[in-house]
Design a protein that fits this description.
alpha/beta, six-stranded parallel beta sheet, single chain
Length: 555
Amino acid sequence: MMSETISGGHLVAKALKAEGVEVIYTLCGGHIIDIYDGCVDEGIEVIDVRHEQVAAHAADGYARITGKPGCAVVTAGPGTTDAVTGVANAFRAESPMLLIGGQGALSQHKMGSLQDLPHVDMMAPITKFAATVPTTERVADLVSMAFRECYHGAPGPSFLEIPRDVLDAKVPLDKARIPKNYRASTRQAGDPESIERLADMLAHAEKPAILLGSQVQTCRATDAAIDFVRGLDVPAYMNGSARGTLPPGDPMHFQLSRRYAFTEADLIIIVGTPFDFRMGYGKRLSPTAKVVQIDLDYRTVGKNRDIDLGIVGDPGLILSAAAQAASGRVENGAARRKEWIEELRAVETRAYEKRLPRQLSDAQPIDPYRLVHEINEFLTEDTIYIGDGGDIVTFSGQVVQPKSPGHWMDPGPLGTLGVGMAFAMAAKKARPDKEVLCLFGDGAFSLTGWDFETMVRFDLPFIGVIGNNSSMNQIRYGQAAKYGEDRARVGNTLGDVRYGEFAKLLGGHGEEVRDPADIRPALERARESGKPSLINVWVDPDVYAPGTMNQTMYK
């Protein structure tokens, strides 16, 4: 009796199914089509995009939204190199995803086969794991290995290339290893002694502050973070995907007073955020404050700046343990922080009131502050907000406040333009019950905008807003400052494109907005259209965000 056989592509699909993958993002190629055939049999949806960068970004976005690893499948050579940017973005953003790339047949190794490149060598520096699958029997085994490595320490991407003859060959099913139960909990609660030290520091702190970084969302530690800051009266600032951990209006929610707080605080707790350019490499923290760093990755703790205490582990478990340890003390410090919280609230209020006239400005061309103000007022508790751009998204970072945890998406520290369409695609696919709103710069939209058609094709409605100044304005400002106005527009000026018409051309809803009074009605019509939409808002090209003018990203 002949034993049942199975192909490499079908083994890939079985391994993806075992990992809980529900959808792959892909652009077709002859090297990889047997994976599609396997996905059909396993009930895994195949979403085909128009550029491999979008496929990789979508896998990244899917992981962020669902908490499960994302998967992109691309062909060999240019298919894989096109996806490099998406993998690199996931690497810096600590997002777990698997990229599967095609490769020429092993039987043609080093012979110059179609699209042959050293993919593993190229991917190794920007992944947690990169390997070639050597035999068909090992296909599912290597897929499970790649996924397991995604969760070693801080999460990140893995890469597998599968040669065409390995993928297409059939082997006896009983000879193939198909792991089903191979994942263990990666949650570490931190050193108990260090937890007690943190509780002691909290008890003695009069002016504490905490920065909740993206790992709070990665670890789904929202409840623990909320209990910590509310229970101990610790003012909280949020960055990256941790934005929305506390709702706007929460007594411990602060946004505009961060620099003041980090200058005046006596205890600063940094959670899931490296001392990278966003933190001035640690130099923006008070030199006299006690600094505590909590992170999933030991290598991040104390990097670029000395700290007083480092705790490695799951931020949720650590914050819960610290809150419990501090709450068990007769004096946990919370009672004496009333004045500090009022002090920060006053700074916050002054900053808000200073900017409010611009947020309500009726100027034409439109002040970008007015645009992001209108977006912030438009968001609901069920709106996932995505930022994809330079100067316009820098404006939004000051004003837009997501209403719920897990409802903010940005590229992360790689600063990649072009993530917006892919993130919207992933968010709407994973959470069809949510509204998705993406703010693009016109330069950022141009990079991957053709996948608007993919959104139409797969019926994934979202509200796209383009802050259009026909420029790469963040760079333009720096050039003007460095070389003078007569050389300010070299290599950074775009055409005046009516993107609202582009949306209609591709089967979506589109509008052009030049009057600030028309922004909100246009947003409402986009919401009601039930289609992928683009509201092209013409903003003042000669107005820059404070972050752009300070060029803080380069300091």
